[in-house]
Amino acid sequence: MDTADDPLPIAVDVRDVVKRYGSVTAVAGLSLTAERGAVTAVLGPNGAGKTTTLEICTGFRRPDTGTARVLGRDPIRDARALRPRVGVMPQSGGIPTGARAGEWLRLMASFHRSPLSPQLLLERLGLCSVERTPFRRLSGGQQQRLSLAAAIIGRPELVFLDEPTAGLDPQARAATWELVDELRLAGAGVVLSTHYMEEAERLADHIVIVDHGRVIAEGSPVELTSNEREVRFRTRPGLDLQALAEALPSGTSATERAPGHYVVEATNPELVGPELIATITTWCAARDVLAEDVQVRTRTLEDVFLELTGQGLRES
Fold first, then answer.
1. Which positions fall inside the ABC transporter domain (predicted)?
2. Residue 292: CB atoms within 10 Å
C-alpha cells in the first residue's frame, strides 16, 4: 500500500526550504506545517517569501534545497496524482483570458468525480450575470471570485489560496469567508496568504508570520495576541519615561509610540486593571499633566505583525 495516500493529519510539511533568484534569496530555510481540517494563514510584508513558498508547495517552483510534501507527496514528482486532490488559487492569472466564466467552471467540473455544482458556485459568488463573459472582460473582483470557484469546484482535500480577497468588496469578502469555513468543516486543509489581519484572525486556526524568507512567529490568533495587554493614553509629549517606569509595577514598561501618545505594556494580563490605571493617572497628576483618552487594549494581530516586521514601507 502507498503510504503517501494515507489520511495523514499533516497536509503540508515544508522543511528548511531555500529558494534563490540570482543574488536574491526569496526563501531562506523556511519550515512550516499545515493540518487537514484547519485553516493556516501565512502572513508577511511584500517580498517576505509568501508567494514563493506557496508556489513551491503547489509544484510551480522547485526549491534549491529543503523539501516540501503535500498530502505526503512531492508536489513536482507527484503532480499528476495530486492534481485532483489539491485546489490552487494563484494571486493572479491561471485562467485563459478568452475563457467564459460558466464554460470554464463546467470544464473544471468535468475533470473531477464529484464536483460542486458550477451553477451553484456562480450563484454563491455573484457571477451569474457574467456567466458568458470572457475572463479578460471581467472586473478584478470577478476574476478573483472565478479563480476561487475554479480552485474549490473539485471538492479538494487541500486548497492553496494566495490573496483570495484582494480587491473584493465587503459582500464578496464575506461570501469568500463562508466558503473557506465550509471547506474546513468538510475536512479540507486550507493554506491562505493574506495581507488582511482581520481575515487571518477571522479564518485561521494557525498563523505563520514570515519575513525575509523565514518564519519569525507562529501560533493560533489567541496565542499570538493574548500574551500582553496594554494601557494607552495621550498627554503632552516628552514625559520622563524612566520615572514613569519606576512608578509602575514590575512586569510593565512604558513607551512613547508617537509624540504625546503613550503605551504601558504588561506581560501579565492580570496587571492591567484599575490599580495600574490609577497609578498612571496619579503619576501624571502629580506632574500637573492630564492623562486623556485612557484605553485598555489587548494587542491585535496587526500590532503583533508590525512589532515583528517593522513599520517601514517595503519597496516590493
1. 12-237
2. 11
Please state the length of the chain: 316
CATH 3.60.130 fits 228-298, yes or no: no
Q: Which helix (H) or strand (E) holds 193?
A: strand 189-193
For CATH 3.40.50.300, list the domain ranges present in the chain.
3-224
Cell matching residue 39: 485553516
Averages of pLDDT over runs of 10 residues in the chain (316 residues) are 58 98 96 97 95 96 97 96 96 88 97 95 96 95 95 97 93 95 96 95 97 96 82 96 94 93 88 92 96 89 90 55
In degrees, rounded to 5, the angle at the alpha carbon of residue 91 between the alpha carbons of residues 193 and 13 is 45
Rounded (5°) CA angle 304-90-307? 10
How many Å apart are CA 163 and CA 146, to the nearest integer? 14
Q: What predicted TM-score, i.e. pTM, was given to this entire model?
A: 0.83
Three cell numbers, residue 32? 512550516
